[in-house]
Amino acid sequence: MSGPGQEFGPRPAYREEAEQRILGGCGLMGVCDQSGARMSGELALRSMASMHDRGNGLGGGFAGYGIYPELPHLFCFHLLYNDDTAKEDTEFYLKKHFRVIMDEPIPTKPIRGIENEPILWRYFLDIAAGKLKETQLSVEDYVVHAVMDVNTYIDGAFVASSGKNMGAFKGVGFPEEIGEFYRIDEYKGWTWTGHGRFPTNTPGWWGGAHPFALLDYSIVHNGEISSYGINERYLEMYGYHCSLQTDTEVVTYLFDLMLRRHGLPIEIACKALASPFWKDIDLMPEEQRKLFTALRMVYGSALLNGPFAVVLGMADGMVALNDRIKLRPLVAARDGDVVYVASEESAIREICPHPEQSWMPLAGEPVIARVSEQGREKATSQGRQSPGQRRVAQGAGVGGAV
Q1: Is 393 inside any structural domain?
Q2: What is the CATH number of the domain that holds 239?
Q3: How far is Cα 391 from Cα 361, in angstroms, rounded to an integer?
Q4: Which of 3, 95, 200, 274 is deepest in the core (most CB within 10 A)?
Q5: CA distance 297 to 228
Q6: What is the pTM of this model?
Q7: Cα(209)–Cα(104) distance, rounded to whole angstroms?
Q8: Is 370 in a helix, a strand, or coil?
Q9: Cis peptide before 366 (omega within 30 of 0)
Q10: 153 to each of 141, 145, 146, 283, 310, how far by Cα in Å?
Q11: Cα separation of 381 and 375, whole Å?
């Protein structure tokens, strides 16, 4: 006589709730040379290509740091435009609020599978004289306000990245297609991050592909931020506006708020975003318990709930972080000065077959790679002098060198 669970024989193999909704999908990677040595973007492209099946072709992208050694002191805005009107409106805005030192199309090449691409343009900007005094904003806040204005108020215009000596390259397609489309193998940087998207809750569109960037921060993300609603409302109090139709956007802004505006050490910011459970905090030594209790009280609305793995790119390195239960895969490795992270170990071994060390980071424990200021300055100087590596055209842009 059979009972419940026995009369039908063995249970079927696990399957996702729908073939088009694989909740554990998306692949990500990051590589950082802590010496400041610049690596070809081809490494990131190869690493992401090995995780092709983690995406479905509805989003791919990369972020590179140290890629513009010719103009490292200027903010570089990567813009995506739906049409010429959006481009004209944005350029009117930029010329009003910045000195446009140079602008040009972002170099691309035709790739099968990449179609209906927006107008892709980049601008190298300095802040117009007197604007900071007039607005009483810091340099960084001035740029953030501009990014929010463009993304929120100019129809059909989206800022993909806005930092110095870095850029985000993203779109609709598999990551290896997007990398080839943007010719990222022709760039060199000391840090690269990559992403292959399998969207589950939001549409696949060019502005919604990863990375999401603001100033020098960029995020690639696998998972779901179920706390998006309260995170978004919390960020609005500080002037951040989410307009790109995906939960990942809040992670970028939270890191900018905590690291740049509040000046938290990266280790503390990670503990605020992926805080231990109260039951674990209660068992901590007194001083540690006081710290984590204070973080939960101050940053309760910034806590990221849900399954996630993220890689944060920064001007001076890279940070990888899992949720506090580790519901999404994340593997790390080290070989000399180079630190690697990825959704799968195979993506690391594709570009570093025999790392000195590899490990699986614990839940909520960040992997941090830092590039010294001296190393970055040396790499930038060498990149500026290196023949055949120029990735920026010469000449004045729409605003000219004023």
Answers
A1: no
A2: 3.60.20.10
A3: 36
A4: 274
A5: 18
A6: 0.90
A7: 22
A8: strand
A9: no
A10: 18, 12, 10, 48, 28
A11: 10
Residue 400 covered by a domain: no
Q: What is the DSSP string of 7-20?
A: TT-SPPPP--S-TT
CA dist., res. 154 & res. 83, Å (int): 11
Q: State the Cα–Cα distance between residues 171 and 166, nearest whole angstrom.
A: 17
Q: Which amino acid is at 306?
A: G
Within-domain flag for 210? yes
Among the options 26, 32, 76, 352, which is catalytic? 26
Q: Could you list the residue range(s) of the whole structural domain that residue 86 is in? A: 27-385
What pLDDT score was predicted for residue 205? 81
Q: List pLDDT tens digits, range 84-99.
A: 999 999 999 999 999 9
The number of distinct structural domains making up the chain is 1
Nearest-angstrom CA–CA distance, 51 and 43 = 13
Q: Could you give the maximum distance between any two Cα atoms of the chain, in Å?
A: 88
Q: What's the pLDDT tens digit per position in 337-372?
A: 999 999 999 999 999 999 999 999 999 999 999 999
In the annotation, is 26 catalytic?
yes
Task: Report the alpha-carbon distance of residue 172 to residue 141 in Å, rounded.
Answer: 30
Question: What's the full length of the chain, in residues?
Answer: 402
What span, in angstroms and rounded, lies between the C-alpha atoms of 135 and 53?
48
Q: What is the DSSP letter of 48?
A: H
Residues 267-297 pLDDT 10s: 999 999 999 999 999 999 999 999 999 999 9
C-alpha torsion sign, points 19, 24, 28, 29: negative
